[in-house]
Amino acid sequence: MNDEIKANDQPVDMIEYITVHVGDMLLGVDIAVVDEIIRYVEPTLVPHAPPIVRGVLNLRGEVITVLDFAMMLGLPAAEGSRQSRIVIVRFHGERIGLCVDRVGDVVNITSDDLDTTPCNIDASHAPFVRGAYQLPEGIIAILDIESVLEKDYSAGPAIA
């Protein structure tokens, strides 16, 4: 993590976020939880798995569970394309793959620049969104990826 010094000599936390596109959403994921990003490959189906589980894949000898990030966010199931990627994140000592439509840039955002969660976001979704940040191409919703992954999806998506 980088520190930047403000005019009054108080350090400001600089956090790097990877931007991902899921449906029409532009999302930010803290790069500290991202291990790697790979091209989309069709995972092996797992019988009787919940719908959000796309399957598993063998990544250099490690079995990775691949989740449909769009379905987790209440969108229709993602379809793999040439731009699709699997973002491998660390969660409770496990590596999990999240299917996204495409990956954008890495942006550096200070805690001062991060806007609070918009008040028009449903209260049930608030735990999943850390805040928002304005980019020239749109507003990024900064996700709390751990909260998204901890949710019990048998009751429905994290954000719908």
Low-confidence stretches: 1-5
The number of E-state strands comes to: 11
Q: What structural class should be given to the helix and strand makeup? A: mainly beta
**Shape annotation:** globular
Oligomer designation: single chain
Q: What's this, in brief?
A:
This protein is mainly β. Helices cover 6% and strands 49% of the residues.
Give your account of this protein's structure:
With 160 residues, this protein is mainly β. It has a single domain (2-155), classed as OB fold (Dihydrolipoamide Acetyltransferase, E2P) (Beta Barrel). It is built from 2 helices and 11 strands. The chain has helices spanning 69-72, 145-150; strands at residues 2-5, 11-22, 25-30, 34-39, 53-59, 62-68, 85-91, 94-100, 102-110, 129-135, 138-143. The strands form 2 sheets. Strands 1, 2, 3, 9, 10 and 11 form a 6-stranded mixed sheet that branches. A 5-stranded mixed sheet has the order 4-7-8-6-5. β10 (129-135) and β11 (138-143) form a beta hairpin. The longest helix has 6 residues, at 145-150. It is globular. Residues 1-5 have low confidence and may be disordered.
Topology:
Blueprint: E1 2-5, E2 11-22, E3 25-30, E4 34-39, E5 53-59, E6 62-68, H1 69-72, E7 85-91, E8 94-100, E9 102-110, E10 129-135, E11 138-143, H2 145-150
Parallel strand pairs: 3-11, 6-8
Antiparallel strand pairs: 1-2, 2-3, 2-9, 4-7, 5-6, 7-8, 10-11
